Structure formats: structure tokens, C-alpha cells
Automatic annotation (TrEMBL):
It comes from Bradyrhizobium canariense. This is UDP-glucuronate decarboxylase. Pfam families: Epimerase (PF01370). CDD domains: UGD_SDR_e. Its main location: cytoplasm. It is found in: Cytoplasm. The keyword Amino-acid biosynthesis does not apply. Signal peptide: none annotated.
Amino acid sequence: MIKQPKRLIVTGGAGFVGSHLCDRLLARGDEVLCVDNFYTSSKRNVQHMLRNPNFELIRHDVTFPLYLEADEIFHLACPAAPIHYQRDPVQTLKTSVHGSINILGLAKRLKIRVLQTSTSEVYGDPEVHPQTEDYWGNVNPIGIRACYDEGKRAAETLFFDYHRQHGVQVKVARIFNTYGPRMHVNDGRVVSNFIVQALRGLPITLYGDGLQTRSFCYVDDLVDGLVRLMDSPADFTGPVNLGNPNEMTIRELAEMVVELCSSKSEIVYRPLPSDDPKQRKPDIRLAKKNLHWQPEVSLRDGLQKTIAYFDTILTRRPETARR
Ligand code: NAD
Ligand code: UDP
Ligand code: UDP
């Protein structure tokens, strides 16, 4: 039987994760409506898709109502890097709350599935390690990360209330730190910062003592998990952790990046930002069981691909690196 192509909305589709997701959906023959206001991204991420007749780019801010026809929605629109989401914290909250209400209203009218890209940040500075989906989290509601963390928590609430109250079919992924090509050169996240610094021979800025931990997932693995979650049986809503359980200290990451870049950069220590979580590692048993998913790309391989990307970007556009 020939599979009918679907029409899929990807909000935030011009961003780092969103653009890889659009690539994947187009490759399997579906139609993609990419909805983005370019708050933290540029058309460069989707330039190569513009000539594809199955791809449509719509400039739109999801905090305003949106009327389209589609079969499913992947909802990614939201600034994700701390310096991006802290630039205009009120807008960040509006994007999570008003944006989710509009996207859920759209899904309700069309009676279609909608997937929310939530985050490991809903666990805050976790007291449970590794983090399981039944842990309710430890978030400072008035701190500088709250606009993002509490916004995403409120969005999860909205998804489950639309599900219970209006029967909307929802899927919620809690994404852990993800990296790869098309990360922003200057978004301040650790992988992009360290690679750019190492390639340019600048000091590697380690915040705090560098003993805080994270677990880094390559973007292709994450996209695979998102697609499997959307295609999973209707009674599996999540929330489900998607991330790589390979935990390491930020200092170890710095050393690996310096080595892989063959860089002479030295490590310098800078103050730890407030509310910076001390440790983070996903428990992915639920994803393994229900989605038959686990990350396949090793950190070394993923970093090498990411370094190659940044190398090209910095060589081609040296002015970007100065910003
Ligand atoms: P990104 O900043 O590259 O992408 C977000 C996209 O959303 C951008 O293209 C941006 O322009 C768009 N956007 C922001 N506000 C908007 C609005 N009001 N209307 C329309 N578009 C808007 O970030 P990313 O890393 O690709 O993250 C994508 C999603 O995944 C986000 O929801 C983020 O919270 C979630 N997530 C990412 C990570 C990660 O490590 N990358 C971890 C956890 C969760
Ligand atoms: N909405 C939208 N597109 C649609 C349907 C609804 O953007 O196709 C918005 C609508 O503007 C509303 C929100 O989604 O503010 C929530 O919709 P819902 O039906 O839940 O709420 P109501 O319209 O009853 O306030
Ligand atoms: N970090 C660092 N140097 C940098 C950028 C980040 O040491 O140049 C640290 C940061 O304090 C945090 C970790 O790396 O402990 C991950 O930071 P990122 O902003 O990438 O992600 P998040 O804190 O949201 O997990």
C-alpha cells in the first residue's frame, strides 16, 4: 500500500532542531509548513529547502492566532539558549503560554495530533538523579531561568488540560541538552561556545569549577526520537525523556573539544551563572520501552561533525565569529 504524504506544521522550524526535523520529514516524503518568526534563527537554516515544492515557509509569531490546515503539529517555537530566552523574559513566557494556547486551539479545531518540545529544565536543579519522568522538579519560580522553565512547565499543563478537557491528542517530549550543526555561533551554549573558542584559539570559558554535569545528545538522534514519539500509539502521551544518558562534567567536555579541534586554547574559569543545575542525566527507560529508541551517535562522532560545521561557518563568515 502506498503511504499518503502528510501535511505537517513545524513551529520553530527554522531553528537548530526544527530545521533538522524539517529535513527529516521532507526526506520521508511529507509536506512541511514551517512556521517561524526568526526570533533566534535565520533563513540560512532553511535556505536549502526553499526550492522543495513540499516545503512552505511562513513568517509568524505563535503568540498570535494561526489558521492553517494540516494533519499534525510539531511545536518547537521558543527560544532555547539562556542568553536568548533571558533577552526578553516576558516574551519568552508569552511564547510558551500564549503560543501553546494558540497551537492547542489549532489542534483542537482540526482534531489533530500535536507534539510539544518540552525540556529537562522542567526538573530545574534536580534532587533526583538520573531524572525520571515522574519527578516533579526543583525550579526557582522567580529566578533568571524561570521564564523558560516555568513557561515550559505551564505549557505541559496546558497540553495535558487540552488533552483531558478537549480530547486533543498530545505528545510531550522532555528534551535534554542537544548539539549539532546549525547551533547558533553566538548563543552562549556550552558546546557552541567551546568549539568556537577552540577553533579560534581563544580561552575556553569554564563556568564555576566545571564539575557540574550534563548529558549531550546529537541532533539526529533527537529528531529520530521526536518522529517516533509523534508516530507512537495514541494512548502514549508522555511526558517522555529524550536525551543521551552519557553524563560527563563540563570540564571533561572542554578537554575533549580542545583535543578534537587540535587547539592550543587554555581553560579559564568564570563565575557560575545563578540557578545553574549541578547535574543532569536522563533516565530513558520509558523511551526505550515505548518508542524503541535510544541514541546511536557517540559524543566523539557527534562533536566531530559539529566541529566540521563550525569550521566551515567561521571560515566562510569571519564576521559572525566577532559578534
Ligand atoms: P532555536 O532557538 O534554534 O529554535 C527555536 C525557533 O523558534 C527559532 O527558529 C525561533 O526563531 C523560533 N521562535 C521563537 N519564538 C517564536 C515565536 N514567538 N513565534 C514563532 N517562532 C518563534 O532552539 P532549538 O535548540 O532548536 O530548540 C527547539 C525547541 O526544542 C525549543 O522549544 C526548545 O525549548 C526545545 N529544547 C531544545 C533543547 C536543546 O538542547 N536544543 C533542549 C530542550 C528543549
Ligand atoms: N486558535 C488558533 N487557530 C485555530 C483555532 C484557535 O490560533 O485554528 C487560537 C484562538 O485564537 C484561541 C486559542 O487558539 O485564542 C485557543 O483556542 P480554544 O478553542 O481553546 O479557545 P477559545 O477560542 O474557545 O477561546
Ligand atoms: N557553560 C560553561 N561555559 C560556557 C557556557 C556554558 O561552563 O561557555 C556551562 C554552564 O554553566 C552549564 C553547562 O555549561 O553548567 C551547560 O550550559 P548550557 O547553557 O549549554 O546549557 P544548560 O545550562 O541550559 O543545560
